[in-house]
Amino acid sequence: MGDAGPKEEIFTFDQLLRRRAIDEDQTALLAYPKSKYGVDDYELVNGEALNRFVDGAAKALIEKGFKPVEEETLVGIFAPSDLDYVITIYGLGRLGYVSFLLSPRLPASAVSSLLSTCKSQTLLYGPDNSSFAESVGKLLPGLHSLPILTRSEYYSKVHTSTPQFERKNVDFEKEHLRTYMMVHSSGSTGLPKPIRVTNKRLTVTFITATALTGFQSVPFNHVHGLVTYTQHIYIKKTLYLMNGHVPQTHDTVTAAIKAANPGIIWTVPYVLKLLAEKQDGIDVLKKCEIVSSSGSRCPDDLGDLLASQGVFIGLTFGSSETAVIFSSLTRPRGDTAWNYMRVMPHVKPYLLMRPVDGEICEAIVLDGHKSKAATNSDDPPNSFHTSDLFVEHPMIRDAWKFVGRLDDRITLLNGEKVLPLPIEGRIRQHAWIREAVMFGIDKPVPGLLLFKSGNATNLDDEQFLDEVWPTIHEANTQAEGFSQISRDMVVIVGSDVDCPSTDKSSIKRAQVYRDFADEIEEVYIRMERQADGPLLQLSQKELETWILERFQELDVNIPNAEADFFTSGVDSLKAIQMRGLIVRHIDVGDNTLGSMVVYDCGTIRNLAKRLQELRQGSAAIEDEDGKELKLMESLIERFSAFDVPVGDQTIPRDPLSHEGNVVILTGATGSLGSHILIQLVSSPNVTKIYCLIRPSGTVSAQDRLASALRDRMMPLDLSKVTAISSDVSARDLGISSGVLSFLGASTTHIIHCAWVVNFALPVSSFESQLQSLQNLLAFTLSQSDPARLLFCSSIGVATSSPPLYPAIVPESPIPDLRHASPTGYARSKLIGEKIVENAVIRHGARATVLRIGQIVPSKEVGSGVWNVNEAIPLIVRSAAILGVLPNVLGPGGEDVCTWLEADVLARCIVELADVEGGPVAGEQVVYNLVNPSSFSWREEFLPALKAAGLKFDVLSWEDWLEKVEAEEDIEMNPSRKLLGFWSGKRRVGEQGTEGEIQREVKFETKEAVLKSKALRNAPRVVDGDLVGRLVEAWKEVW
Length: 1038
Description:
The chain has 1038 residues and is an alpha/beta fold. Among the domains are: 410-527, ANL, C-terminal domain (GMP Synthetase, Chain A, domain 3, 2-Layer Sandwich); 540-620, Non-ribosomal Peptide Synthetase Peptidyl Carrier Protein, Chain A (Orthogonal Bundle), CATH 1.10.1200; 868-897 and 935-1038, no CATH class. 37% of the residues lie in helices and 17% in strands. The protein has a 13-stranded mixed β-sheet with strand order 2-1-10-9-11-12-13-14-15-19-18-17-16, with helices on both faces. Strands 27-26-25-28-29-31-36 form a seven-stranded parallel β-sheet, sandwiched between helices. Strands 6-5-3-4-7-8 form a six-stranded mixed β-sheet, sandwiched between helices. α15 (420-427) crosses α16 (461-477) and α32 (957-966) packs antiparallel against α33. Mean pLDDT is 86; it is low at 1-6, 618-622 and 984-998.
């Protein structure tokens, strides 16, 4: 904490302002853009200037009839956050008035209700809010409305030439307890409720001030906003403010932060998502010492992406009623648990974490906490139950992760809190609607589940929606902008489907979300997916008309094609909704639209021009990559067609054939397959293993298997193992009908590990591999009790994911074929995943995808030799041949390594197959199998290679690649074997998606870690002596 100035106690905020005016070091305290729509043209305001502005504001307000007051007198303030707004508020405070900070997003009815409740008869409004003030006046007769002060009013010679204004006979100790401002929260009854902010509460925030220059994207009317203003003024560190007149897009926020160059950024997850869309946004975050997110739950994927890119991200958590009670900003630099917040030291004695459901606890703030502004319970006495739910970190004491709320509020991705009850109540009044349930937690926009009543049974969904839409539209007019529901976000549920409810007919919201999770997720997927039928190919003029009409349907009337979106009333919700309409209906070629493309373009004309350029630029020729993507789609449909037997045609399970699990394994002669075989053999719950081995001349399948195991120095206990000569690409698996029937009656599991590994082949060359997968799935579907099939896929299916949020690949299906690495191998694996997915969805197959990352030899089992023709060994060999190694693993700066030893991975697969009869519950369709404990290529693996005796210089990826290209003798320089593949990575890295540099991709392992002890405890390759062993083994064959 920095020096706050003279040591006399500060009782009021106005005292602090006056103190800053006489500081010897006149540091800039606040920085606002000078122009109305400026982003980075900051004007620095020091303590003396700030106090002078406030003094002028007090005098100007007196001239307007605001006489100094001693009794509490509220004045509503409804305007965007800018310097005039803040100076007006501070000027009112100097006169003794209480400024009631009203969110510009509130409807007129809510503002009139709040002012009436607080007995306020005065409203100051922003320069663009005069018509709104008139609307409030019609609802609240006698309301006195006038505009907030302007610079010419509070900074004039008339005011600066007169003595500074002083309220007389002020008792500062009483003033300390007096309300200085009023804010409001959404509450739980449908209307916001006022919350007092006293001078005492503001001065308490001094103790948590951070001694860094800051940037704040949150407006002043939020408690978090006004608190950071207060703290930066106290600590004498400049706070740069986002212009409230400018829409927040990737480009505007990035430019604002870049110009500010702050030490700490105060923002919300929504803005972080915008910044993470492009590398320059991530770069400005990386330059800051701290990035603080608050207001809503920051998605783990987003935070993990930023952390993996070198951003020190942390969270603060609090409310209008409690102020900040948790923070992860002050954790040690090496502590990666960014999303587990520590209890603030001054809060700890007054915080009770009460269990509500297992390990989930509710935060309860006790009497005595100085910043507690409300009480809602006497259990304990005078306590505040936050309804906020947390789980504690398993290893770090008093570190808590926010998981949700007890109440029904829906917190959107941008931090706005939707109150569903009043909206649902209005919609539910329609006779044809049985129930209405809003959704949208952690999503960009809200949606609505509509349950048909019996009266609407005979209507199709489109007719039904046409009939009830006027009711929804009317409810929208009564709701805040961010709470409004667009037509394409409505999900219609049939009259014969139950809506979970209590005995009192209240909906069970959490259960509804669980029961209809697929339908809800489909709506958001649909936002990114094209509509059925041909897309519209329109001229620019036609596009302008189309966009204008769509905005009218969204209740936004834009006067002409040149009018600015933001000033015409297009908020972020409307921008997102318009983007969704464009994606679904307008042909933009194969291009992806940025999440804020509407705001980025600014006007209808610019947006129409952008869309036309995208279509024309991509439609000129169809490249080879486009052809291969179409081939992928064709292969998916072709190999997802199963002739599924029914009834007596299925093969019944023979309960007497074997006690325990019977496993079919493919690929047992390969590196991973042999390790899986050893794990299966050692399992007491596996009674029989059938290894399907490709035919090879006169050598029997059993001999081929035994020879492969000997070559790999694997144990040769084959007592449970039968090797069968098999061509899995044949419809009957190349096995006699009798043996096939026997296998069908006894097999409980299939682990499909066989696949051609060749990065140079096109995807068309993998058709036989895809045929094999289809055949095995068809085999399981022919069983009356289908065996569980585990398909060994590759993380290559997602390593070309676009550099947009989410940057962490979830344990779920890949949404876009373009996300696969541009090799036939990776694309064939993604086709395989889609075939498995379709078999599960369409036919009820029991199948799981195992998305496997880099495998290294085991130090415990096998020969310990890493195949010298694989990519990593070929890279490492360049150290011995050329004396150089790259500082990263690719053009996108890939540095994080999540490699797994083969035996660990094999144990993990067997655990996930559930052949052990262990605690694996339910059936997950996808698991990501990478090491949850990563290491750095540059900082850990390269030093380990040097410690093992290799001598080399470290070059950039490009310089290293040039060295490899320069040595053309492939016998002398085997690293050239994969030159085409590496060059392809360079091209992908240069092009990325939408011209962006491809960035490192991280894979979520939550479910796999939960269900596999082997993965939970997986060692890092760089720990211990494994790297040394690998180098010694390589030296013997180099």
